[in-house]
Amino acid sequence: MANRNTDIHSGAKGTEMAPERWWTLAVRGVLAIIFGLIALIWPAITLKALVIVFGVYALINGATTILGAFRDRPSGERGWLILSGLVSLAAGIAALVWPRITTLALIWLIGAWFLITGIVEIVGAVMRRKEVEGDWSMLLNGVLAALFGLILMLWPGAGAVALVALIAIFAIVLGAAMLVLAFRARHVTHHPGHRAHPMAA
Questions:
Q1: pLDDT digits (tens, 9 = 90+) for 112-128
Q2: Which has the closest alpha carbon to 59: 87, 26, 24?
Q3: Alpha carbon distance 48, 144 (integer Å)
Q4: Over 60: is that where the pLDDT of 129 sits?
Q5: Torsion of the alpha carbons at 47, 174, 183 and 134, rounded to the nearest 10
Q6: Is 78 a residue whose pLDDT tops 70?
Q7: 149, 113 in Cβ contact below 8 A?
Q8: Which UniProt keywords apply (predicted)?
Q9: Could you give the percent of the chain with pLDDT greater than 90?
Q10: Per residue, what are the HEC states of 87-153?
Q11: Mutual angle of helices 19-41 and 160-190, in 10-degree steps
Q12: Hey, where are the domains in the chain?
């Protein structure tokens, strides 16, 4: 009986996420939605304004991700979170310190950011597949981001307004997916027993 209780406790602990993990995801999701809404409501947004909005979003997203990585995260998970945060910080800095960036260069920058972030998310999801068995949200999030990055990089010559609308819609979808994942993580954090399914004696 003692061994069975120990196994159940260990199983619940393995799937439990630290509290800061869910709120960092929530913050990133809200920021992505805000970024998407600004671009969608303001379709004639100037290139300079879009660069500033994207740069600020990428910086905050990167800082939040790295902050979550250094707060009681397992070493294996911490590495890919830091990498994801650094990529986001680099994209944000590049956007803000490159005042005369062209439309094509901006599209490539945003596309590369989505692609690299998506790949990092996919790697993180694969690394955590044993901890969160049956939860494909994070993997799907990474696949969508990577695919969108490829679309932007392979289709850079489309009209600026069309691309802004595309970026806006995807940012909103990605933000919503992050919020869903965040609240699922929060539920597991506060109700770890729900993931444990003890076998009958």
A1: 888 988 898 888 778 76
A2: 87
A3: 27
A4: yes
A5: -160
A6: yes
A7: yes
A8: Membrane, Transmembrane, Transmembrane helix
A9: 3
A10: HHHHHHHHHHHCCCCCHHHHHHHHHHHHHHHHHHHHHHHHHCCCCCCCCCHHHHHHHHHHHHHHHHH
A11: 160
A12: 35-190
CA distance 185 to 198: 21
> How many alpha carbons lie under 13 Å from residue 24 in its C-beta half-sphere?
22
State both tokens at 17. Answer: 């996420």
Q: What is the pTM of this model?
A: 0.60
Q: Which residue has the tokens 């049956």?
A: 134
Distance CA 155, CA 149 (A): 10
Q: Tokens 């910086």 label which residue?
A: 59
Token output for 82: 């830091």
Measured CA to CA, the distance from residue 9 to residue 55 in angstroms comes to: 43
Residues with Cβ within 8 Å of 183's Cβ and at least 6 positions away in sequence, in order, are: 22, 26
Q: Residues with Cβ < 8 Å from 13, sequence gap 6 or more?
A: 192
**Helix, strand, coil: what percent of the chain each, to 5?**
80, 0, 20
* Token output for 78: 């911490």
Six token digits for residue 27: 């913050």
CA distances from 139 to 43, 96, 122, 125, 127 (A): 31, 30, 5, 5, 10
